Amino acid sequence: MPKINIKISKDIFNPCYFPYLGYTAPLEIFYGGSSSGKSYFCADRCVIDMLSGGHNYLVLRKVANTVRRSVFNQIAKSIRKLKVSELFSVNKSDMVITCQNGYQILFGGMDDPEKVKSVTPAKGVITDIWVEEATEFDYEDIQQLDKRLRGKSTVRKRIILSFNPIYQTHWIYVNYFAGKWDEAKQTYKDDRLFIIKTTYKDNQFLTQDDVERLEATTDKYYRDVYLNGNWGVLGKVIFQNWRTEDLSEKAKSFSTFQNGLDFGYAADPAAPTHMHFDRKSMTLYLLDAKYCYEMTNDLLAAEIKNMVDRQVVTCDCAEPKSIQELRQHGVTAIPARKGKDSVNFGIQWLQKLQIVIHCTLKEAINEFTVYKWREDKDSNVLPEPVDRDNHIIDSIRYALENEMAMGESMDVVVETKHNPFRRR
Ligand SMILES: Nc1ncnc2c1ncn2[C@@H]1O[C@H](COP(=O)(O)OP(=O)(O)OP(=O)(O)O)[C@@H](O)[C@H]1O
Ligand SMILES: [Mg+2]
């Protein structure tokens, strides 16, 4: 096996991760608070594994178009940091990184399952799958990925999951932590599983400013999860009046629709939504909703038209220029009126409904699960939602503005051949 010998100083690693540089378990979990150095370590180790030969990595995010700005850039940065650029060729357009020994790092998104199924390295088989922000994935995704690790290799194969822990009912907790994980310890090991928990305190590379910024979080849940890296026990969640259902059949009987759009670009995505509101039963059926990352308005317009054709879309009014551009690209975009206290008013109105979310809409389900009121350090609930995990929920509020303002329904019947389920 071609081996490349280089010297790398121990000092470039956080000490908590260093013992696991040459370690392999079939399933490895790196979890904990934000800025704890998880992504850096997984990227550094990936590069070092590549140099040692025999490894082909597949690095995944749930959504393909978040790959470039996260894991791909992270690994490219790692190659430069380790001063081994001359030993790798980085193909930015195809997002393939090839080591001089012929082994490769491939990238993908789980929302493109065909690609994930078919992607193959130039030589050998996939040996390591790094699933970044793994809480975004489904359990079935991981089972699928396990099947990708078939075939002969000279190294032990593994799946690596890295993430912030979110909430305790999550499938990762249920499947890998419950009954095993001891909060008093930093690691867990058995034949098949390795877990390491880290927080910002384990990251010696943070500046004092970084630490102060992180410690400034006052909300109890977010301190628990993002600062202390604990599996969150959700405090005062805002919505409990929702459930999921396969709406594919029921949707065919709906003739009126409401559509919304929350603008966003990089870390905060744009979120178009498509729904049916039944005033008689005060039931909201969320039929389609998605996160659109890094989409210029022409691309966003194409996504929206795919979702709602030419139906009216009520958009966040904070971006009149974007609304105009969407209109130029054929979206019937109109601004929301918002108005004083519209967030809390909208939330209270939505709380009175029955909300049914189509079962495949993971991002929406996640938002409805974790959207919560702010709490101070003493767990007092404040009359203000935490301003995160709310892209789809904001979009729904815009979409339903008319419904909220009116006692009577003002639905406009829009004939459409569009079937929001055709892509699923
Ligand atoms: N080995 C390292 N060398 C230099 N800087 C590092 C290293 N590890 C971490 N850092 C610094 O710490 C920051 C946070 O690290 P990283 O992004 O890996 O944390 P994380 O645990 O993945 O956080 P999150 O949960 O928010 O994704 C990085 O942006 C970088 O500035
Ligand atoms: Mg990270």
Account of the 3D structure:
The chain has 424 residues and is an alpha/beta fold. 29% of the residues lie in helices and 21% in strands. It has helices spanning 38-52, 68-81, 113-118, 139-148, 171-177, 208-215, 220-227, 297-308, 320-328, 342-351, 362-370, 391-399, 401-405; strands at residues 27-32, 57-61, 88-91, 96-99, 104-109, 128-132, 158-163, 187-189, 193-198, 242-245, 258-262, 271-278, 283-289, 312-315, 332-335, 354-358, 373-375, 381-385. The strands form 3 sheets. It has a 9-stranded mixed β-sheet. Helix 1 packs across helix 2 (68-81). The structure holds adenosine-5'-triphosphate (ATP) and magnesium ion. Adenosine-5'-triphosphate binds at residues 12-14, 34-40, 164, 203, 205-206.
At a glance:
With 424 residues, the chain is an alpha/beta fold.
